[in-house]
Amino acid sequence: MKLLAIDTVTEACSVALWLEGEIVTQEAVVYQSHTERVLPMVQALLAETDTALSQLDAIVFDRGPGSFTGLRIGAGVTQGLALGLARPVIPVSSLATLAQGAWRQDQQQQVVACIDARQAEVYWAGYRVEDDAMVATTAEQIGPARTIQLPAGQAWFGVGTGFGRYPDELAELAGVSWLGTQSQRYPLAQDMFALAIPAWQRQEWVQPADAIPIYLRDNVATPPAK
Question: How far apart, in whole angstroms, are the C-alpha atoms of residue 172 and residue 133?
Fold first, then answer.
């Protein structure tokens, strides 16, 4: 199996190839340069591995939540490539991907993924690891950091930019014990494969036209009121 994964939903931009179990990746923090960087990164990765686009079985797509602009860029690139190749798309959550990175890098089994959503809010969800893949224990949600509700008496590891933006509010959540936090982490394409491959096996892919971003926030194109 050969898969291409694309992630552009935060300040980071990353792409990765799954080549019969081997992962090759390129990633960089690019802030607002995703449009200029993502396709050259894909091309460089294909050239590095001597892989043709036509050899891909599917494209793995970070469907969000995340930056409105980043989500649109990722969806557009994914749809364009998948349509041209007539390949299916496997949507993966940005929050689950972020949590998966905490398992890969820190071996943390119970994780709160929390991304700064601007407008004094965060995207967040809770996860636990099962068979080396993160499984959601809460719904994906958006709201002020202080309103996050987790089961009392459990210890969690926190990951994502929300912990850098709202450290005090998150540290003071009632009944929550933190094993540690990593605030300078982003969803990365290489962590999408642990989630995408089981989805592929369950035939949970979509057609390119249905590679639709998940925003969570209804007024994504509306500037905040003064």
Answer: 29
pTM above 0.90, yes or no: yes
Sequence-ordered list of residues with C-beta below 8 angstroms from that of 104, at least 6 positions apart, any chain:
190, 191, 194
Element (H, E) at 50: none
- Reported as a single tens digit per residue, the pLDDT across 175-201 is 899 999 999 999 999 999 999 999 999
How does DSSP assign 85-138, residue by residue? Answer: HT--EEEEEHHHHHHHHHHHHH--SEEEEEEE-STT-EEEEEEEEETTEEEESS
> How far apart (Å, rounded) are the C-alpha atoms in residues 199 and 3?
13
Write the single-letter amino acid at 91: P
**By 3-state DSSP, what share of the chain in percent is helix, strand and coil, each rounded to 5?**
35, 30, 35
What domains, with CATH codes, occur in the chain? 2-93+187-210 (3.30.420.40), 95-182 (3.30.420.40)
Residue 86 near residue 205, CB atoms below 8 Å? no
